[in-house]
Every structure is written in structure tokens, then in C-alpha cells.
Amino acid sequence: METFVARQPIFDRREKIFAYELLFRQDKQNSYNSVNGDRATEDVILNCFLSIGMNMLTGGKRGFINFTENSLKSQIAYSLPKEHLVIEVLETVEPDQDIIFACKQLKEAGYLIVLDDFVFEPRFWPLIDLADIIKVDFLSTDVHERRNIIKRIGSRKIKFLAEKVETRADFEQACQMGYSYFQGYYFCKPVVISGKRIPLLKHNLLRLMGKINTPEVDFEIIDTLIKGDVSLSYNLLKFINSSVFGFKSKINSIKQALVLLGMSEVRKWASIIILQNIGDDKPNELIVNSIVRATFGEALASKTIFKEQASNIFLMGMFSLIDAFLDRPLSDVLAELPLTNEVKRALLGEDNQIRAILDLILAYEKGDWVNFSVYAERVNINETDVPDLYLQALISANRFTA
What we know:
50% of the residues lie in helices and 13% in strands. By secondary structure, the chain is of the alpha/beta class. About 3% of the residues have low confidence.
């Protein structure tokens, strides 16, 4: 299935590209055709950061994405890199206390805040104080309004973006007035770009993956995320009550399940759920092999000096085939996943500490016994212990997928 995003460049005063606005498109028709703003925001985020990839869309530049009231409150932005994402607050968003708080948190986390299609009203002052950029629609405003907005607000450290610049005269006028950025048909119409759709990967999974891989994990946030998604809640309770754990009494509380599992096991569970969702059009063996690598790597780590790194090594194995799931270059996919830099570098082939475990796994899979012996010695593990560990990994993989 194809997925679509339109992008329109945003220029600076030297007419160099500063960023791109990324816009919802349902098909190759270059027009907005969604009646659900929340869904449009979610689709743009998933399509930009997973299906197509930000590198392909923006070439390393920032991407402006429209955020509705609900998407601001949902915290979906926190699972995305602040270096690439710009939060564009739609003009329909009411600046109530919850919105002001959400924007303040995003600002403090390092995200740029943009106010879209801005028309001044005193009730917008709290948002103005948080804004980095204000967009002014040159089609719907006259010369007086365009100039007056800058005069009224320009004393703050805010830059202004002239939107819907249709002619050279519009551009020159905006420059004279003090606008810093420019966007419109004078420069370029939006261009639709397509990629492969990931059918079932929802934004809650992205947010969950981001939250469980932060240095200081907040159980309350994770509990709220899982409770807010029927599918995640069902899967977690089914998992915790399965024969894998064998608890005597039934576990009915999400929070209790999280405590009993511990964060290491929650990371495993979430990783498996993600792979199962994005791999639903792939052979089941691809999922099984990923889980085998993950559990095998974790078992190897427990027998070596990498015991403290077992959780990261599990994730390294789990996502070692992610490029095959998505049919995209591994480097592009990893740039968008909330994994540690050490795991990413190991997966890309850098000879860091935990990469030795992955090399050992790959050598064992291929029956490359010469290199297997080299890596076994390097990680200081007895070669005779490895077959049993691999067998246990196979058994665990079958239990997980069941």
C-alpha cells in the first residue's frame, strides 16, 4: 500500500531553503482531503518518520507539521526528534490552560513552536510568548495587517514567516517589513511524495517505544499510554497472564503488570508488539528470527562481561532485521527509532563493545565456525555453552510469537 505526503519548501531572505512544511495527502491528488485533523496529523507523522523517512523528505532540514488540539495534548511529539520536527499550532486551536501547558512543555523540551495563519487577538498572548515563529497569510491579510503584526509583537524574540507569497512583489514587500521566512506558490507549489505504508503501526506504539527507552523511565506515563489504547492493554494483560510467567492469581491491573514485569521485560514486550504490527505483510519467519536474535543475544550477554547491557543487546537483536521489515536502508530507519546511540552504531556495523555479540550471533547462524570462535573468545564465553543458549532462544521465540 502506498502512503503520501506533500512537502512545500520554506525559504529564508537569501532564498535558500530553511525547512519544509509537510502536509497530509490521501492520494496523488495534490489537495487536502481529510475531515479529521487529528488523523491527518497522525498520518503525516507516521508517513514522514517511518514510511518514507525524513532524510528523503527534507534532506536533513526541519519539517513543519500541523498539530491539532488533541495531538498537542497527546504528547505524540515527544517520540520524534526535536532536531527535525517543528510544531505548527493550527489557527483552530483554542489557547486554554491545557494547550498552554502542553506547548510550554514542548518548548522546554527543545521543540520549535510555530503559530499558523496568525491573526492577533489578546487571548493569544500566552501562545505568543512561547512562539519561535509566527506565520502570516499574505492572501487573507492586507498591507496594514501584515505590518501591524510585526510592530505589535516584534519586540519579542520571534521571527515572522510570510505564507502564501504569490508574487515577487509579495516577497520584496515581506522582506522590507521584516519577515524572515517565506512560503508560497511564487517559490514552489507543494510536491506529493509517496512511499510504502506501514498499515498497523499506530502512534501509541511510537510514543511507548520512546518513553521506555529514556534514561529515567516514568511508570505513570507508560501506565497512562497503555491504558489509553485498548489493543496495548489487551496484549499486555494477555502476555502477563500467559504460561510464560505462570502467576498463580490473575493479573488485572496494567500498573501491576508493569511492576511485575520490570522495565527490561516491558521493553521486550513493546518491541515484539511493534515488529508484529509492522511485519504483518512479511513472512512469519522474519519475526521469529528477530526474536531469536534478541533472546539469544540477551542470553549470551548474561554469560559475559556485557551482563549490564543485556537489555540493549536484546533490542539490538530485535531490530537487526528492521530494514527487511520496512524495505528501507537501515541507516534511515534507525535515525527515526528511539534506540540508544550505542545500539544504533552496533547495528550499522561500528566495532563497539556490544557489536561483538551481534557478530557472534551472525557467525553462529551462518555456521561460520572460524569467526564464531574468534567472537566467542572476544566476548569470553565458553563455546560449548552456546548451543544450549540458542536452543532456549528458539523456545522463547516460539512462546513469544504464540
